[in-house]
């Protein structure tokens, strides 16, 4: 099974992200695999292929690492691309300042490595992926994308979710396996 932990988005934030996708899609109808509204989320940590026998250990490590993590507040910022030179992903950047979340991510990455799973060890970067670029975009398309305005709305999420990700020809389909409450 292919797993990741992430934050489910509140419906009003999903609607704002969906509006951004529709707006961008009107100018860039091809060359991008746009994310379906029901799949929009914030990734905490991608785990990858997991042996079913490891699931309990992974969940135990995760719960240990998020034990002191409070509910998280994010603010929608702007549309951006990653990486900056060879654009592959279009996302909405999120402002986020809670060091406890970053500490929880690092803790979980270390625990996953101890269990034999590879992690990228990157710092947590709060974002909502809107699409994955499949073919080179022209400079006017990139400029249009980067000038797209997003309502800078703040929102709070008080739980993390374990998702199973099934890859299909139409893209990844997510199934919720478990939710975990964060500290109030």
Q: How is this fold's topology laid out?
A:
Layout: E1 2-8, H1 11-27, E2 32-34, E3 41-49, H2 55-66, E4 72-82, E5 89-95, H3 99-114, E6 127-133, H4 139-146, E7 154-157, E8 159-168, E9 171-181
Antiparallel strand pairs: 1-3, 1-8, 2-6, 4-5, 4-7, 5-6, 8-9
Question: Quick check: average pLDDT?
Answer: 93
The strand line-up of the biggest sheet is: 2-6-5-4-7
**Strand element count:** 9
Nearest-angstrom radius of gyration? 17 Å
CATH A-level architecture: Alpha-Beta Complex
Q: Output the number of helix runs.
A: 4
Assembly form of the protein: single chain
Q: Please summarize the sheet with the most strands.
A: 5 strands, antiparallel
Strand content: 35-45%
Query: Which residues form runs of ≥5 with pLDDT under 50?
Result: none
Report the order of strands and helices.
EHEEHEEHEHEEE
Fold and architecture overview:
The protein has 184 residues and is an alpha+beta fold. The chain has a single domain (2-181), classed as Cyclic Phosphodiesterase, Chain: A (Alpha-Beta Complex). The chain contains four helices and nine strands. The chain has helices at residues 11-27, 55-66, 99-114, 139-146; strands spanning 2-8, 32-34, 41-49, 72-82, 89-95, 127-133, 154-157, 159-168, 171-181. The strands form two sheets. A five-stranded antiparallel sheet has the order 2-6-5-4-7, with helices on one face. A four-stranded antiparallel sheet has the order 3-1-8-9, covered by helices on one side. A hairpin with a 2-residue loop joins strand 8 (159-168) and strand 9 (171-181). The longest helix is centred in the N-terminal third of the chain and has 17 residues, at 11-27. It is globular. The mean pLDDT is 93.
